[in-house]
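hey so i finaly got around to running the thing on EAL domain-containing protein from Rhizobium phaseoli. pasting the sequence first so u can double check i didnt mess up the copy paste, my clipboard has been acting weird all day
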Amino acid sequence: MKAEALFWQQCSQAVMADGSVDAQRLMELVIATYRVHENDFGEIERSAETLLRENHVLRGNISALSQAFDGQQRLFDIILNNLPLGLSVFDADQRLTLSNIRFAQLFGLTQDDVAAGATIADLTDKMRGAEGASAKPGRRAGRHSSATAKSSSIRRREWLMDDGRIIQSMVTMLADGSNIAIHADVTEDRKAAERITYLAHHDPLTGLPNRIHFREQVDATFAERKPDEQIALVHLNLDRFKSINNTMGVSVGDTILQQVAERIRASAGPENALARLGSDEFAILQTGRQQPGNVTALAEQIRRALSEPFFHGEKQVELSVSMGIAVAPGDGEDTDILLKNAGVALSHAKADGSKRERFFAGEMEAQMQLRHALEADLRAAVEKEEFELHYQPLYDLSQRRICGFEALIRWNHPIRGRVAPMDFIPLAEEVGLIVDIGRWVLRQACNDAAQWPDDIKVAVNVSAIQFSSSDLTEDVSEALAAAAVSPSRLELEITESVLMENLSEVLPILHALKERGIRISMDDFGTGYSSLSYLSSFPFDKIKIDKSFVSDIVDNKEAHAIMHAIILLGDALGMRVTVEGVETAAQLALLECEECDEIQGYHISPPRPVRDLHHLLSPPKNGGETHSPKR
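ok and heres what it spat out for the 3d tokens, dont ask me to read them lol
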């Protein structure tokens, strides 16, 4: 109610009966009205104050929200522009609405190029590259293929940039026609994937295809083979290559393998497939109609190439190779059989003495099965120690007595019976068991010698593999220490092949053994190619003339002259001479005239088990010499 109306109302209420205004009454009404509205004025004032305070708080909140929004915007910008991936957003009209710095960097665009509103077509024209052929069409997201208003699709695009980079874009197409895309530089990932694929199919050392890739090549060749076409597969193995790694180091071995691969590649030519199957194994696949003539010529060419010395710095290495050859379709009509039969032929080539090639023959497989069975039995024999030593006397002609024994291994198989050394020693060397067998022989021979008189020595044969695949000096020291036998009573016999393997590595071992007082003998002297040259390379204590020189010395003047010359040579070099294979009294008499030092052979005694040696070492009752040979 307005103030004027309220006042006139109060005046009308204060008029008395005579029409005059009761001033006192009017005053009371005004005061009462004031008092009624006094509380309302206070409430209004309080409300106003509250509104002012809330307005102040609201302003503060608005300011805080504004600051927070600014902070979030800055954070969003930081995150957006520091993403390792490029990000772009295009609207339904295919105009750019949002992007980050990485997007421009990936595609070689400027900030002006990526201004809001730029079209995809404009950006594509300005990119320093072009879309690759590997882009894939869109696919529907979700489990159902039916289109809905809310569905979206994803497509992958690839861009080949002018600088060689590969950019991959994953584009999500939204229902309204807009899209969101992330972009990544996949160049290194692609190179890594290609490298992994390459390594999965190639040998990293030589760059040749590996076994997996080679099988694929053989499979493909069989699939494409014409009815009148033959496929020859050559399986090569470097003979005794492991000794190079053991004596010269793996790095030298790797260098040699690279040179081997290059020579084989040059010999095989681009028309033949070549692979490295393993450490020292290679394979060649040859197709044609003139087999086995072509593959025989190829094998000979490879043999000539690998027979030339290999060099690593000043070191010279000579290698030989064994090869197994299988020709399809006669030797197999699928990859597995052809590979297996070439491997079987290779095994026979190595069993025949290495350095040769063998063509697969049907009977080889049966022989290989027997060989595998023998190898399994030999491994079991090493574990069970099914061996024993027999000893053949060494007879001193000047003292007319036995001066020592040569230890000769025997294998007593529970089913096969007695297995001849020539049947299992080459196999043991090939599969590496000779190290364990040789270690056992050393221990057993020293233990047996400990039971003999102190002036009786024991001779033990040592394989070339024991020099390269074990710590021979340690094995010898442990055997002597365990048996408490003097080193001077042990004689180690080595053949020329030991020195041929790697003279520079073997000589320090021989010198170390000799310095300990162990005697070193060259066995089978005269049967090798360079025996005389090796005599000058090391001060042998003894040379043992092979029995092949003895059989004709009585009736053949030339044979007698050779024996005479070798005995004189040994005497001139200060080396004792032992003649093996003495079987008759006439041979003995002639060697006595030649003043030979020692003899060994059935005329003295065949090899005997250790239990029979007591009779040979016991002095005769008449006081004569110990076990004189028959006259």
